[in-house]
């Protein structure tokens, strides 16, 4: 005989646990299943700006997360050829710092938060199919590690199972409504880091077309994240370790930052990770986190959005889980709200994620935007989602940045002009994309 729950969630990491916690606190019977056994890691760059830390607080997880021991990153540093700037955050709910917490401990803390709220989380259990009645999702089929299969019937099925979402595939939403190829690949490793003077600073360097980062995290380590142009993934396939070391050297500021540090882990890679919006609500189902929407990691928004919109989904549907029509209206309303809140950041992220000739323009934009005592703070307000990113792309500033990029990089002029033209055409098309995403019936 099948089990019964109000809501069943496929996936119990950031989005799944946040959804489960919000529902359980409101008296909803919720079961979350995940194939992992926690603590368990996953591929993730896991930097949180102040808004992301604030979302951990809102979902009730921050106290547990802070006990993990990651430093509070109260300052951010932006560097490039002949340029260096640093600054702090505008507080959000009293939080004026970011954090970089490895997913092994972060996800376990979120699972503990969901359980403490009253949710049931089953580890080593995977959703393999959905139950349907009259075109409506009414539950899931679950496979337990070891071979046992069983069913859970529920009023709402939530897919919180990542970019390769099984739930998205089973409801026919795997094909995105809007997508954009990544312009940069990702390679990261953790370093033993004795540099105490950097321990509270998240740092980024953009040199030519190369992008390098160093984020202090828990365990006395720092994450070193390289984001070379996507076409350079072929270089890393030849000799991953040698190319990683060589690329660090292509970013002089990062190389200097790592003096005295020692790599302590293997290198994790992701060469292909397109951004997208999927249809994320339908009869008896919804998709949260990366299952429904994913942005290039270059702006580090994924965990913040997973936790926030998982929590908001739980809060939105908790009072209507017994009314199918009201439930479907609530999930559709939640999806529209998510899309409105994420679309502008999605486009801004795609522009920053280009690894072509636009990188030279990005350097000049950063130089202009971070000048003055409050420059870095203004940029951090964009990353923390309290300043509209379009303010950073005003046409006057863009024209000046392109002109400086052309003067300073005579050997790359054709590349700069080509990439700038493509970016401007993309920006001109954003209005039509917004109409297609937010008003698909038009």
Automatic annotation (TrEMBL):
Pfam families: FAD_binding_3
InterPro entries, per database record: FAD-bd (IPR002938), FAD/NAD-bd_sf (IPR036188), Geranylgeranyl_reductase (IPR050407)
SUPFAM superfamilies, alphabetized: FAD/NAD(P)-binding domain
Residue ranges annotated for the FAD-binding domain, each copy included: 5-176
Molecular function in Gene Ontology: FAD binding
Signal peptide region: none
Protein name, per record: Dehydrogenase (Flavoprotein)
Species in which this protein is naturally found: Nonomuraea wenchangensis
PANTHER family: CONDITIONED MEDIUM FACTOR RECEPTOR 1, GERANYLGERANYL DIPHOSPHATE REDUCTASE
């Amino acid at each position: 005989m099948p089990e019964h729950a109000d809501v069943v969630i496929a996936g119990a990491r950031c989005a799944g646990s946040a959804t489960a916690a919000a529902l359980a606190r409101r008296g909803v019977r919720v079961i979350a299943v995940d194939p992992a056994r926690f603590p368990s890691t996953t591929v993730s760059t896991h930097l949180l700006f102040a808004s992301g830390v604030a979302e951990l607080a809102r979902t009730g997880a921050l106290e547990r997360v802070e006990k993990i021991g990651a430093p509070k990153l109260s300052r951010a540093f932006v560097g490039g050829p002949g340029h260096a700037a640093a600054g702090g955050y505008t507080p959000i709910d009293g939080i004026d710092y970011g954090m970089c917490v490895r997913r092994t401990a972060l996800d376990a803390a979120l699972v503990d938060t969901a359980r403490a709220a009253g949710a049931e989380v089953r580890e080593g259990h995977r959703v393999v199919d959905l139950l349907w009645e009259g075109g409506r999702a009414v539950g899931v089929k679950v496979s337990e590690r070891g071979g046992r299969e069983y069913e859970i019937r529920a009023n709402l099925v939530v897919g919180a199972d990542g970019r390769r979402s099984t739930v998205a595939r089973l409801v026919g939403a795997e094909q995105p409504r809007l997508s954009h190829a990544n312009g940069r690949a990702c390679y990261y490793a953790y370093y033993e880091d004795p540099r105490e003077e950097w321990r509270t600073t998240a740092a980024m360097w953009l040199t030519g077309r190369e992008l390098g980062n160093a984020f202090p995290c828990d365990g006395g380590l720092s994450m070193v994240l390289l984001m070379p142009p996507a076409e350079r993934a072929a270089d890393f396939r030849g000799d991953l370790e040698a190319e990683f070391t060589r690329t660090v050297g292509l970013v002089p500021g990062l190389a200097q930052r790592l003096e005295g540090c020692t790599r302590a882990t293997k290198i994790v890679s992701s060469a292909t990770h397109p951004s997208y919006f999927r249809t994320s609500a339908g009869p008896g189902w919804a998709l949260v986190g990366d299952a429904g929407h994913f942005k290039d990691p270059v702006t580090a928004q994924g965990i913040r959005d997973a936790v926030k919109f998982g929590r908001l989904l739980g809060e939105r549907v908790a009072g209507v889980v017994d009314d199918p029509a009201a439930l479907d209206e609530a999930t559709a309303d939640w999806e529209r709200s998510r899309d409105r809140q994420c679309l502008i950041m999605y486009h801004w992220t795609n522009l920053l994620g280009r690894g072509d000739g636009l990188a030279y323009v990005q350097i000049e934009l950063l130089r202009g935007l971070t000048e003055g005592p409050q420059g870095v703070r203004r940029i951090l307000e964009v990353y923390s989602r309290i300043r509209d990113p379009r303010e950073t792309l005003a046409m006057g500033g863009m024209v000046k940045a392109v002109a400086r990029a052309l003067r300073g990089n005579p050997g790359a002029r054709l590349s700069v002009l080509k990439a700038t033209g493509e970016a401007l055409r993309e920006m001109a098309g954003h209005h039509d994309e917004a109409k297609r995403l937010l008003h698909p019936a038009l």
